[in-house]
Amino acid sequence: MSEEEKRMESGARHGLIVLNRHVPEGWVDYNGHMGDFAYGIAFSDAVTAYMDRIGVDAPYRERTGATLYTLDCRIGFFRECHLGDPLEMELVLLAADDKRLHVFLRLRGADGRELALCEQLLMHVGRASGSPRAEPFPANIVAIVAQDRADHADLIRPDWLERRIGLSR
Question: Pfam families of this UniProt entry (predicted)?
Fold first, then answer.
């Protein structure tokens, strides 16, 4: 285990805790543990919680017709979780520009160990014209995102972010 992995396993916090919940019955699959689809739901719920934090919340979406769309997503699965297990989701803002967010999410169990990781690229999209179009964030959201980006600039990044999907030779 690398030094980085040891630090990650130590349970040290590095980003924003955006979601805490337990594995519901509907997330358990035919193998008796949380299905791969449910990790996607959990990560999506965590992004929605972050949207609320930065001001892309339900009132904003209703008022402006704008939201965040997921452009790309990758999930790494490391440990099983089961019915009723507590889950904690941490989010790190890796990068941002006037329309996009690059986020990293870490799903942990009650013991602080990593269960899964997720990387997503999100884009601010307006829908007022009738068809979705990329739009810059408004100034109030830019300010919050800029502060989060500054707060996360020096946080530890797992090696996993640099890996690609593929078969090793």
Answer: 4HBT_2
What letter does residue 12 receive in the DSSP assignment?
-
Architecture per CATH, 14-154: Roll (3.10)
- Compute, in degrees rounded to 10, the torsion defined by CA atoms 82, 85, 86, 90: -20
User: How many C-beta atoms lie closer than 10 Å to residue 104's C-beta?
Assistant: 22
Q: Which of 40, 34, 7, 11 shows the shortest CA–CA distance to 22?
A: 34
Helices and strands per DSSP (H, E), number in the chain: 4, 6
* pTM recorded for the entire structure: 0.87
Higher pLDDT: 129 or 48? It is: 48
What is the rounded distance in angstroms from the CA atom of residue 132 to the CA atom of residue 71?
13
Q: 3-class SS at 17?
A: strand
Domain range annotation of the chain: 14-154
